[in-house]
Design goal:
It comes from Novosphingobium pokkalii. The protein has about 375 residues and is α/β, with parallel strands linked by helices. It has helices at about 1-10, 25, 70-80, 105-115, 135-140, 165-180, 200-210, 225-235, 250-260, 270-280, 300-310, 315-325, 345-355, and strands at about 15, 30, 35-40, 40, 65, 90, 125-130, 145-155, 185-190, 215-220, 265-270, 330-335, 335-340, 360.
Length: about 375
């Protein structure tokens, strides 16, 4: 991994992506839970064992490749049917590379500058576990309109079979952001917390200390799919969990231990909650409607989210449903959430971000007190 990053540092330009890329990677704009995701660079040398690149047949591409130019990618994002100026949250390079890798970060920063040049005030999430330098922050600070948050992924995992990247790199990046960033927000993105691996008192205490460098902390569990489990098995890692569910795994006992032990910056279960707190805004995902999620939030943030929480009118909801191809007559407005049927994630998240109100599919309910997590460890 270190050699691959060194090779990248010695190059002057990213290589063009091969023509035979999987279709899922050739599509540079897609809707994910935290917003529209822009991914016109694919490939990463960091080798984190739990990376979602396993799901895109891309884990073996260690060298980042450029799928299209920044100008083309930004134009595709703005022209996407689901993009709403000043409203839709955006992520950049969060699916198939790390945005702060050498050369990659030049494209990330240029893409942000292009978006900012349109006067857009959308939230933009930049997720990294690599090196953030003072010069990087200087360019981010020159942005005038976008609401940029750098989420520094830190786990404290010491087993290189799970995560070969030294957590000290993320710690140093947080220090740089704390020293140089003013307009740009920073989140300690504490993930993945895995039962029996990095849920010790020492890890929790270290997270609490690091959180004092951040505007907020967001914690979450392991995204555990069959491809990821197979990778761990090939590396000699015993199964971390029994299930391979759609949602992330964070057992009840682990969460309770974390919350009892943790002391530091305000801590949140959901990414958008931490970002909302950092900006002093209501949560754009409307998690206030699922009140048990909020029981760890500061009272001032709960008041902000309560003030911004509006049950949608049937007419507004019907209009959005028709836009995404859902039958309005099969939609229910329930307490704190909208319930739809036979929906895709893109359809749900577009409505959710348009309304600032939770949208769930009837076939995939969010069970009480599980905070949208997998069932393992909560039965």
């Amino acid at each position: 991994m270190i050699d691959a990053v060194g090779d990248l540092e010695r190059e002057k330009h990213l290589r063009r992506a091969p023509a035979h890329l999987p279709a899922s990677l050739g599509n540079v704009v897609e809707y994910r839970k935290s917003g529209l995701s822009l991914n016109h660079i694919v490939g990463c040398p960091l080798d984190c064992g739990y990376c979602v690149r396993h799901l895109f047949d891309n884990f073996e591409m260690k060298r980042p490749h450029l799928v299209m130019d920044d100008e083309q990618a930004v134009a595709a994002l703005i022209a996407h049917w689901a993009f709403v100026p000043h409203v839709t949250p955006v992520q950049i390079f969060n699916r198939a590379t790390d945005p702060f890798l050498p050369l990659v970060k030049q494209h990330m920063l240029h893409s942000l500058e292009l978006l900012d040049g349109h006067g857009l005030r959308n939230h933009v999430l930049v997720i990294t576990r690599w090196k953030v330098t003072p010069k990087d922050v200087e360019r981010l600070e020159r942005l005038r309109h976008l609401k940029v948050t750098v989420l520094v992924t830190w786990s404290g995992i010491a087993d290189p079979r799970l995560e070969p990247v030294d957590s000290m790199i993320a710690e140093r990046s947080l220090e740089v952001l704390a020293e140089h960033a003013r307009r740009t927000k920073r989140i300690l993105y504490w993930r993945p917390i895995i039962a029996g691996v990095n849920d010790t008192n020492e890890c929790i205490d270290r997270a609490g200390a690091l959180s004092r460098l951040a505007d907020a902390t967001v914690f979450t569990g392991l995204f555990h799919r069959e491809q990821i489990r197979a990778h761990f098995r090939s590396a000699g890692v015993e199964d971390l969990y029994h299930d391979v569910p759609r949602r992330k795994i964070l057992p009840r006992e682990v969460e309770q231990h974390v919350l009892r032990r943790y002391s530091g910056a305000p801590i949140f279960r959901k990414t958008s909650c931490g970002i909302a707190y950092a900006y002093g805004e209501a949560d754009y995902n409307g998690h206030y409607g699922i009140r048990e999620i909020c029981d760890i939030c500061p009272s001032g943030q709960i008041e902000l989210c309560a003030a911004g929480h509006r049950t949608p009118s049937p007419d507004r909801l019907s209009s959005l449903a028709q836009m995404v191809g859902l039958a309005p007559e099969r939609i229910e407005i329930a307490a704190g959430k909208v319930i739809v049927e036979d929906s895709t994630e893109q359809q749900r998240y577009f409505i959710q971000h348009s309304l600032g109100f939770q949208v769930h599919d009837r076939a995939q309910p969010h069970l009480p007190e599980r905070h949208g997590r997998a069932e393992e460890g909560w039965n």
